[in-house]
Design a protein that fits this description.
The radius of gyration is 24 Å and the shape is elongated. α6 links the parallel β6 and β7. It has a six-stranded antiparallel beta barrel. Strands 2-1-3-4-5 form a five-stranded parallel β-sheet, with helices on both faces. Strands 7-6-8-9 form a four-stranded parallel β-sheet. The chain is built from 14 helices and 18 strands. α7 (200-208) crosses α9 and α9 crosses α11. The chain starts with 9 loop residues before the first strand and ends with a strand. It folds into two domains: 3-162, Rossmann fold; 166-450, L-fucose Isomerase, Chain A, domain 2. With 452 residues, it is α/β, with parallel strands linked by helices.
Length: 452
């Protein structure tokens, strides 16, 4: 798996002037407080040695950030700096920036920093240059400000990293799912992500050539994963081979996302569905998709980069005005389910339709917050949507992976109709927790049309 999933490294840039203005002491206090607060964040931080006061020092500071492999730059003007530096920043650092305005001193009758004014000057320039940015406003000692900072860093980093992502597609899309087909050039032009195609023969050969002892050791891991419903131990060997082949392909080819045409060839030719392996990879936080749904895999990757941990793809089986049923043949991470042995807890089973092994059969645990999201292309543009929901106790349990969800303040029936008219394809990505705002901000940074 590539380094795109590493924690974002933040570069901290304090902008000033050669001749200090406003209240230098207040500006220095804010600088020190911001430095201290950012130093306690969960990810690594880098601050250039040079003090940025003009074009030359900005160039030097950005060069230091690049040499230090900084992912995101946070720009602070604890006293208002020179707006003429914004075009230079745009020219030298094409990725999104985080602009942070610190507060005024709440004493006396003199303006102390004009930090927000300085930020506003930069946003006007960067927006005109179509340069994406995130905004943070507040005191470094305020926990809400630091939460806003972390969210902004995640969004800016995800938008930068997706442009360097590499996705793999094995065998194309499943028959009939034409809306999930992807134009590699259009994808790379719009998002920057590169698509690499592989044949099913290549993939099956990779699985066949795996050492037997490696497969045997992995079977023991699968046996401990969940009880067997209608499987024999012999069924697990091929399930392990497919898992190990998908994992090896992602590692060896430096793939950040992978989509596999799982039918009809794999169950018919290999005698095995790859769903247990896909569920395991999703549990590990990898962006994996069934049925050749590469944009679905990229949706999972985007959520992962935004800190949403893991995801799987689900069909939208049915809905009414209150709830929607999420269902698939069996690809969900087992951590989405109740504990082993509880009603709806995970089991390893045969596919509901052709009775081939092996799938994860489970029900989404009720009472959990989730986010439903999707990236797709329609009418020459990329679009994105997300909505927050909560899982509820299902009215009936289905074979495969299933769950019932209630959207927050929205009718699933109305949302489904809207998305159909917007051309959304077959799957939605299901993430644990609530993260629709981060996904919306990501879409804005990427200039992707947002669908409510």
């Amino acid at each position: 798996m590539s380094s795109l999933n590493n924690a974002p490294k933040l570069g901290l840039l304090f902008l000033g002037r050669k001749r200090p203005g406003f209240d230098p002491e207040w500006g220095w206090e804010m600088t020190e407080r911001a430095r201290h607060a950012v130093g306690a964040r969960p990810g690594p931080v880098f601050e250039p040695a040079v003090k940025v006061v003009d074009d030359a020092t900005l160039r030097q500071a950005l060069g230091e950030c690049r040499a230090a492999d900084v992912d995101v730059i946070a720009i602070l003007q604890t006293t208002m700096a020179d707006g003429r530096l914004a075009p230079t920043f745009h020219q030298l650092w094409p990725d999104p920036a985080v602009l942070w305005a610190t507060p005024e001193k709440q004493e006396g009758d003199m303006t102390s920093s004009c930090s927000l004014v300085g930020l506003h000057t930069w946003t006007g320039i960067l927006r005109g240059l179509r340069h994406p940015f995130e905004i943070v406003m507040g005191d470094p000692d305020d926990s809400d400000t630091l939460a806003d900072l972390e969210r902004a860093v995640r969004v800016a980093c995800a938008a930068g990293r997706i442009r360097r992502a590499k996705a793999g597609l094995v065998g194309g899309v499943a028959p009939g799912f034409l809306s999930m087909s992807v134009d590699p050039a259009a994808l790379q032009t719009a998002l920057g992500a590169r698509l690499q195609s592989y044949s099913l023969v290549e993939f099956m050969e990779l699985a066949r050539e795996l050492p037997e002892d490696l497969v045997e050791r992995d079977v023991e891991i699968v046996r401990a994963m969940a009880p067997l419903k209608d499987l024999e131990l012999d069924d697990l060997s091929r399930a392990s081979r497919l898992y190990l082949a998908m994992r090896a392909m992602m590692d060896d080819e430096a793939l950040d996302a992978l989509a596999v045409r799982c039918w009809p060839e794999l169950p018919n030719v290999v005698g095995q569905w790859p769903y247990v392996g896909m569920a395991r990879l999703a549990e590990e936080g990898r962006a994996i998709a069934c049925e050749g749904d590469i944009e679905g895999a990229l949706t999972c990757l985007i959520g992962r980069l935004l800190g949403l941990e893991k995801a799987y793809l689900s069909d939208w089986l049915e809905n009414d005005n209150e709830t929607m049923t999420l269902w698939h043949g069996g690809v969900a991470p087992v951590s989405f389910a109740p504990p082993v042995g509880a009603p709806g807890g995970p089991m390893l089973a045969r596919h509901f339709n052709n009775k081939m092994p092996a799938v994860v059969e489970m029900t989404l645990e009720a009472g959990r917050p989730i986010t439903l999201a999707r990236l797709w292309r329609c009418e020459g543009e990329y679009r994105m949507t997300a909505w927050e929901a909560e899982t509820v106790e299902p009215r009936r349990r289905l074979m495969g992976t299933n769950g019932l969800a209630r959207l927050a303040d929205r009718s699933p029936r109305q949302w489904f109709e809207t998305l159909c008219h917007e051309g959304m394809p077959h799957h939605v990505a299901v993430f644990p927790g609530h993260g629709a705002d981060r996904l919306r901000r990501f879409a804005r940074a990427m200039r992707v049309a947002w669908v409510e």
